[in-house]
Write a structure and sequence with these properties.
By secondary structure, the protein is an alpha+beta fold. It has six helices and ten strands; from the N terminus they run βαβββαβαααβββββα. A five-stranded mixed beta sheet has the order 1-2-5-4-6. A three-stranded mixed beta sheet has the order 3-8-7, covered by helices on one side. Helix 3 packs across helix 5. The two termini are 20 Å apart. The model has no long low-confidence stretch (mean pLDDT 93). It binds 2-acetamido-2-deoxy-beta-D-glucopyranose (2 copies). One 2-acetamido-2-deoxy-beta-D-glucopyranose binds next to helix 3. It comes from Urochloa decumbens. This is Hydroxyproline O-arabinosyltransferase-like domain-containing protein. Pfam families: HPAT.
Length: 221
């Protein structure tokens, strides 16, 4: 489910890899947040290994350690040393397949199954992540940019023209990636009405900045 950015490794044989998704906008230069054998990851509120002890134990048996070893993360965004990812990746694949083939696990984890599989696979290799809440924000629920590096536009942003959030109900003003399944968003999207938080305004401005500067935007390139 995730797109990984491997390019730099082919081009420059770099030491670290950033795994990120295509719905990430970088709002400032991203330094290497990892330190040697400690990768950096974003903690997701909806990845809760402790609440799924019974299922997790199928893949992370008691003798390995407490369930709290499993970080509340997915594989994106993550910055990790290439040699560590080389160790984790085959396990990650196997754990994903085992989870998918187990009905209870598949049902419990659903679309976040590979995220759990990554978290479990890293724990199986004794790898713990530095949890960086400032790695990214997720509008409309995070309203301020604070000192974040990435805006993740996973949720739809719906607002009334008075600037009130109408989450779950199509707003008079909206930005939702799901509106653009057939092609790229048009250039020069209308900015949100007054009162809409900084995070959403910045998101739309950045999309406009990209579309204004990419000559082949309309071709989806
Ligand atoms: C993954 O599963 C295959 C098939 O069961 C096995 O041969 C292989 O050793 C496993 N690899 C890892 C890293 O667990
Ligand atoms: C973008 O649209 C606004 C009106 O919504 C217009 O005033 C402005 O000139 C447009 N900018 C560009 C670069 O097309």
């Amino acid at each position: 489910m995730d797109l990984c950015f491997w390019y730099c490794c082919f081009l420059f044989s770099c030491k670290y890899i950033l795994m990120a998704e295509p719905d990430h906008i970088f709002v400032k230069p991203l330094p290497n947040l990892a330190y040697d054998n400690d990768p950096a990851a974003f903690p997701f509120f909806y990845i809760t290994p402790l609440e799924h002890e019974k299922v997790i134990r199928k893949y992370y048996p008691k003798e390995r350690g407490p369930v709290s070893d499993i970080d509340p993360i997915g594989n994106s965004p993550v910055i990790i040393k290439k040699t560590l990812l080389e160790k984790i990746a085959p396990t990650w694949m196997n754990v994903s397949i085992q989870m998918k083939e187990d009905e209870e696990t598949d049902k419990t984890f659903g679309w976040v199954l590979e995220m759990y599989a990554y978290a479990v696979a890293s724990a199986l290799h004794g790898v713990q992540h530095i949890l960086r809440k400032d790695f990214m924000i997720q509008p409309p629920f995070d309203t301020k940019l604070e000192n974040t590096f990435i805006i993740h536009f996973t949720y739809g942003c719906d607002y009334s023209l008075k600037g009130e959030l109408t989450y779950g109900k199509i707003g008079e003003w909206r930005f939702d990636k799901r509106s653009f399944l057939d092609g790229p968003p048009p250039r020069n999207l209308t900015l949100p009405p007054p009162g809409v938080p900084e995070s959403v305004v910045t998101l739309v401005k950045k999309v406009n900045e990209a579309s204004a500067n990419l000559p082949r935007w309309d071709d989806g390139i």
